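hi support,

uploading two proteins for the ticket. first:
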Amino acid sequence: MLGTVFEVQTGITLEDAFSAWITGTTGMEDFVTEDVRYQVDEVSGHPMYRFYMSARDMARFGMLYSNEGLWQGQQIITSQWVAVSFEKYSEVPYSSRSDGHGLLWWINSAELFYGGGVGWSIYTDQTGY
């Protein structure tokens, strides 16, 4: 639902925003807008936004969050958004990797943040490792 809210409020597609605001600034080498694929969720009516990214581009994205949204001296994502993203908003008792979910990040009690989807994952903590 977050993707739907973003697109309605900004008038920008997620792939165009990600390409303009994140990939160019961080020097991602492989991402193209066609790497974002929408899959309609029949239960909620909101699409899932699947991002297909190379390992090196995912590493850059993970480092951006590990650095509280700062990339080579430029604030790309506000540190407030990163902090809010890493807050635990729901419990996930059935997961062996995490015990809660923030805003698009899985969180465990060791303050390890995990971004994951079908076939990929990014692990980060506040030290950047």
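and the second one:
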Amino acid sequence: MADELRLEHLDSEALKEHEDAISALYRVTYRDELDDPFHTTERFMERIRNYSKAPGFEFVLGITNDNPAGLALGYPLPAQARWWRGLTTPVDPELIEEDGTRTFALCELMTHPDWQGKGIGHRLHDELLFKRPEQRATLLVDSDNDTARRAYEKWGWRQIGKIRPGLPDAPHYDALILDLTVSMPG
């Protein structure tokens, strides 16, 4: 159950110590997508290492029975962030202006399949986001991932457009934002 979960806040140095566990968690969670070059474990870990270089990077690791049950990680978007450059739908330019303190990018939220549906993803999400000083958060979700979309909408996220990150083989995603200045959604 989710009440057996231990949450650890870790930084980029601790990420290095947990790379094997994070890789294993990724492989089991994304096992159906690992044949796609964008979704290989190596590419995922490369992205995570790059995120970890950003000032303010943080990740929360959920542990049950001494094994990773899930994680949430991200970083504050810098001024003039590249994050929004892949938008494929028009949005109000003011909505995507970044000053380095406005938006926290939730880059990954995953729960081990054995622990999905038990509230762990929601606890990791809230633990990472609702102590942040930024006004809002953003994330990218696969348009076809109905389970994740429903959860994000329930947690207060709203879509602002469609986006394809700046990597040549990156999939298309829906860009969502969440107001962090209001009380935590249920």
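thanks. also noticed: Strands lie at 6-10, 58-64, 67-76, 103-111, 136-142, 158-163, 173-179.
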